[in-house]
Amino acid sequence: MDSLTILVLAVSFFLFLLVGVPISFAIGLSAFLSLVVMLPADIAAQILAQKILTALDSFGLLAIPLFILAADLMNIGSLADRLLVFCQALVGRFRGG
């Protein structure tokens, strides 16, 4: 990385933070702007899209919405209440239980 790219990265990041952009978007936008400085805009957009799709193609990220779905189904079917009553009966008499 040359000094111009580092300067664009740092200045754009702090500028986005001063404007009130959330940190995650500020990091992404400043990284994209530094890519545009290093490469042409169309190649930078292709690289960004490829990195996003590669990051989303993991089973770990797939587990998050499925855990939320399972919790919602347990809550609707009152299984969560029965599990809490069972756990209370099992360890409720112990200190910290």
Structure description:
Helix 1 (3-19) packs antiparallel against helix 2 and helix 2 (23-38) packs across helix 3. The mean pLDDT is 87. With 97 residues, the protein is mainly α. The protein has helices at 3-19, 23-38, 41-56, 59-76, 79-91. 82% of the residues lie in helices and 0% in strands. The chain is built from five helices and no strands. The chain is elongated and about 65 Å long. It folds into two domains: 1-57; 59-97, no CATH class.
Structural topology:
Blueprint: H1 3-19, H2 23-38, H3 41-56, H4 59-76, H5 79-91
Helix pairs in contact: 1-2, 2-3
Order of helices and strands: HHHHH
In total, the number of strands is 0
Overall morphology? elongated
Helix content: over 70%
- Number of individual domains: 2
- Cα separation of the termini: 55 Å
Main sheet summary: none
Overall mean confidence score, pLDDT: 87
Compute the number of helices. 5
Structural class per helix/strand content?
mainly alpha
Low-pLDDT regions: none
Strand content: under 5%
Radius of gyration (CA) equals 23 Å
Short description:
It contains five helices and no strands. The protein is mainly α and 97 residues long. 3% of the residues are buried.
Index terms:
97 residues, mainly alpha, 2 domains, 0% strand
